[in-house]
């Protein structure tokens, strides 16, 4: 009996039936996926940690609070380089494991491409991640984390400051009172033959009490657009000012709004009834230019608008038109489509517009908080912890992850086993995963398990390293469809899962016995005493712990088979960790699963294949 060697995963297998077509040196092609993106990046699942023998390097590209810098320095080399041009950033990034930015730095696709795979985490020291190309980050397996809470109050307070300042013309009146014309004259005194200067203040600052009569806030209707963290804090404060507050947010729970006395309304109702509109939604394709000519036309004449969210949610040209047409009486803006806006921007220069240079998060307290929040998230991610503020990966609470830990290992190993059972050239496209559990569906988060099965399926046959960030993307790139099903079991929901089953449809197998009655490659596993076990291959029940590697043999069920295989392995100094035999019926066919600590040599495997009752066998690396 001869065996073939698989170069990519060092699989060895032999099939008695087509013995003549196999040779020890031939390369057994592994299953192929449709054309896919390859990468030389070496990233481990969840563990995004940098090389063990050197400190990681963190590039801080915008000013960050001292406390955050100090936290970073305890763990990493910190390079604070501000005001880098896009080219300079792309050059530097290949030397960095992490990058920290605020809203002023574009983290474009080029940045990820230039990193050569070294960049593992981007920390956004603030909320909005619209300056980070999230798709590119995900495709490159780079985690993006933000600091979503530390500047909420600062932004809400700035919103209220702008609301009140606008209503009472504070900025305009201040500028007017300070404004004056200074005239400087230079003369020459002939008798003394000396030059002299005179300075006159003509047209002194104006005391314009009638011009700057404002409007009151009390009793007015404020529409908060986006009832998230900042929006709800603005609402709370506006209620304190005696305003009638309504909110529009398609995703906000009504009871949270009700709890602070705010009514959730439709977009059109908010537009039609508000005296003041305050914007607090993120900039997304759905919210871009959400205030435009059409929506301004729906507003009450004389409406006043505050924007501390993102400039792009307003069509700025349309706002100028609405101001000029008197639909919008005033606007107060902290954010702009392009920052800084052009100097001749009609909007910025408009007399009835109050502007600040994106100061929402700029308080001493918020910046210290943001710096600490982002430094902790970045250090945690570099250490391999799951970030609770991950933007492009599932956020799994630490306690859930601890509970799922052995199942995470089981999931990856089942994926690895299943894909190694596929015959070369078969093309893996349809994978079905079945979770059997006594837990209610919403009490079992399978996202991490799915990512690990995907990792197990892809890594043995490609150079791509799959992690929690890029698992779904990597599967999609390869045309791999992974469907999930849950079987609800009666019983105690104490452990999260009873078993995980991985089936690959429409493929042939190197090990015919792995094909189930329904025609798919099927492997099933369970966690026993915290250790993942393989419990089913095709229709055969086995029980072998998933440690080391596995030899699967199909043989005629007869006495002495375990001894024969065991002694071959023993003679060749291969330590057997576990053996289990599953059979359909006595003296018929049986599948033997043998756990081995070392990889047997080709000769050893050939000797196993030469045992007369062995019909087929496969060596699988875990
Ligand atoms: N100016 C600043 O310095 C500053 C500071 C902090 C936050 N921000 C910005 O403020 C915005 C809100 O921040 P946050 O922390 O409250 O975010 P958040 O995610 O807590 O809240 C955003 C809310 O907007 C809602 N939303 C999404 N799409 C919507 C739509 N089409 N219509 C209405 N609502 C929609 C979401 O459901 C969510 O409740 C973000 O754009 C953020 O970048 C600016
Ligand atoms: O999204 C945010 O957190 C704010 O816009 C603050 O941005 P900044 O960090 O650039 O001040």
UniProtKB/TrEMBL annotation:
Residues 550-622 form the ACT domain. It catalyses: (2R)-3-phosphoglycerate + NAD(+) = 3-phosphooxypyruvate + NADH + H(+). Pathway: Amino-acid biosynthesis; L-serine biosynthesis; L-serine from 3-phospho-D-glycerate: step 1/3. Pfam families: 2-Hacid_dh, 2-Hacid_dh_C, ACT, PGDH_inter. The keyword Transport does not apply. Keywords: Chloroplast, NAD, Oxidoreductase, Plastid, Transit peptide. The keyword Plastid applies. It comes from the Eukaryota. GO terms for molecular function: NAD binding; phosphoglycerate dehydrogenase activity. Its EC number is 1.1.1.95. InterPro entries: ACT-like_dom_sf, ACT_dom, Ado_hCys_hydrolase_NAD-bd, ASB_dom_sf, D-isomer_2_OHA_DH_cat_dom, D-isomer_DH_CS, D-isomer_DH_CS1, D-isomer_DH_NAD-bd. It is found in: Plastid, Chloroplast. SMART domains: AdoHcyase_NAD. One of its GO terms (cellular component) is chloroplast stroma. Belongs to the D-isomer specific 2-hydroxyacid dehydrogenase family. PANTHER family: D-3-PHOSPHOGLYCERATE DEHYDROGENASE 3, CHLOROPLASTIC (PTHR42938:SF5), FORMATE DEHYDROGENASE 1 (PTHR42938). This is phosphoglycerate dehydrogenase. It comes from Salix dunnii.
